[in-house]
Specification:
CATH class: Alpha Beta
CATH topology: Rossmann fold
Distance between the termini: 42 Å
Number of domains: 1
Strand content: 15-25%
Number of strands: 10
Largest sheet: 6 strands, mixed
Order of helices and strands: EEEHEEHEHHHHHEHEHEEHH
Length: 261
């Protein structure tokens, strides 16, 4: 079953859907329960594609084409319908946990805001938050609930973000550079945690990263973007081990050289 289907999607920030669009005539699909990686240099359109899926592009962005989620075209939904999908059906982990969390609100209050918006009864919230924090392997969840983000390490902050992203049991999880702001020693642990949660919840994942090596270890398929255009797309092994495009070969070579220096 196809979970996400992008058909001839073009996205522009300059008011016209022209050749210099941030995403240009992109078509691809993701099977339910699979992980698709998106790689490319900064400005290639990776995050733009994710934001279009979650309806969080700026108002001046123009979008054409079709984005089907479980057979329904997201772009033809009303704003209310699309907003209802966000967080409940399609959720996102942002790049930097320090900016994704509100620095002046305790972790408990930030979860309250999320759970309240989806109808969770207040009497059940504390036990629910504790369960979600334990679910991402955070020790002493009651203590963490009473702390501010700045009192947690980067790895702990990212686990909190992950718990918040999946607390409403979405079907699609978008991870936008989820390890790039973390220390190298923490990154494999967060990736392992993401994979565990993906398996346990049968999530479909869109995993955005500039780290080809990281994508190679977790993704079923990989899309390579450059200047908003699809350079290469296919099974992860084929794209990374037998790339057809020169740009893909250069990305893989650069990643390998960086890894083994």
């Amino acid at each position: 079953m196809i979970a996400l289907d992008f058909r001839n999607v073009t996205i522009s920030y300059n008011g016209t859907l022209s050749e210099d669009a941030a995403i240009c005539d992109l078509s691809l699909s993701i099977e339910k329960g699979k992980i698709m990686g998106i790689a490319g240099e900064s400005g290639s359109g990776k995050s733009t594609l994710a934001k279009a899926l979650l309806n969080i592009l700026p108002n001046y962005a123009g979008v054409s084409g079709e984005i089907f989620y479980m057979g329904r075209d997201i772009l033809k939904m009303s704003c209310k319908e699309r907003n209802a999908l966000r967080g409940k059906e399609i959720s996102m982990i942002f790049q930097d946990p320090a900016t994704a969390l509100n620095p002046v609100r305790k972790i408990r209050r930030q979860f309250y805001d999320i759970l309240k918006s989806y109808g969770e009864k207040k009497a059940a919230m504390d036990s629910r938050i504790e369960m979600e924090l334990m679910g991402v392997q955070l020790p002493q969840p009651r203590r963490i609930m009473e702390q501010y983000p700045s009192q947690l390490s980067g790895g702990m902050q990212q686990r909190v973000i992950l718990a918040a992203a999946i607390c409403n049991r979405p079907k699609i999880l978008v991870a936008d550079e989820p390890t790039s702001a973390l220390d190298a020693s923490i990154r494999p642990l967060i990736v392992e945690e993401l994979l565990r949660i993906k398996r346990e919840n049968n999530l479909t994942m869109l995993y955005i990263s500039h780290n080809i090596v990281e994508l190679a270890s977790i993704c079923d398929s990989i899309l390579i973007l450059k200047n908003g255009r699809k350079i290469e797309y296919g099974f992860a092994e084929q794209v990374l081990c037998r790339p057809k495009a020169q740009y893909t070969r250069e990305l893989v070579e650069a990643a390998m050289n960086s890894t083994y220096k």
